[in-house]
Amino acid sequence: xxxxxxxxxxxxxxxxxxxxxxxxxxxxxxxxxxxxxxxxxxxxxxxxxxxxxxxxxxxxxxxxxxxxxxxxxxxxxxxxxxxxxxxxxxxxxxxxxxxxxxxxxxxxxxxxxxxxxxxxxxxxxxxxxxxxxxxxxxxxxxxxxxxxxxxxxxxxxxxxxxxxxxxxxxxxxxxxxxxxxxxxxxxxxxxxxxxxxxxxxxxxxxxxxxxxxxxxxxxxxxxxxxxxxxxxxxxxxxxxxxxxxxxxxxxxxxxxx
Length: 257
Description:
Elements: E1 7-8, E2 28-31, H1 43-51, E3 57-60, E4 69-76, E5 81-85, H2 88-91, E6 100-103, E7 118-119, H3 124-129, E8 133-135, E9 138-143, E10 145-148, E11 166-167, H4 173-178, E12 189-196, E13 202-215, E14 226-233, E15 238-242, H5 248-251
Parallel strand pairs: 9-15, 10-12
Antiparallel strand pairs: 1-2, 2-5, 3-4, 3-6, 4-5, 7-14, 8-9, 11-14, 12-13, 13-14
């Protein structure tokens, strides 16, 4: 089945994360730094994956689409890709090997008024689009779904979450229905309950983490729609608020849903 990489013309943020005849599909454009360093062969691409943040501007720097602008929408671990959304007319002009500049901005972002909440992989401008509020000592942000930590799979055990993602397992029909996970979309903001991402990804009662759905569902055991972390609080200082419009396509007006 179609899988990771390349230019995906018919799947963008805002589309369903499940139901495709595909596996681990990455919406829009998959970006990888192919430059090599003899001392650190994976260094250039690792730098791209750590420094890029969701909401960053992506600019086509070569080819027929040169100058066109898009938006970083997620990170996919294992394959180590950055995902970027572009308008259909730009996708039609892109070619494999075209260069894309990511204007990395967001690493080191801190909430000085609420240090119990860690921010990662988040462009401050995208954070502002969440219309965040501090209510009763907690950060209130919109999400489309609340996901229990026990259904999270591939990606557990990672040493850090400044790159990559981890997957919502959708194999259990009862869990899918109970938690309303059947209509998760690419680009949705979701809250992972009882999950702490401060130093890797662990189960911790009362902790809350918020992320963005980066890639599609898949058929491999332990896998599913991938979530890139944006916010985490080991002490539960995040208050998710259900909002059906909490999708990056809607929030940054990337397309009409």
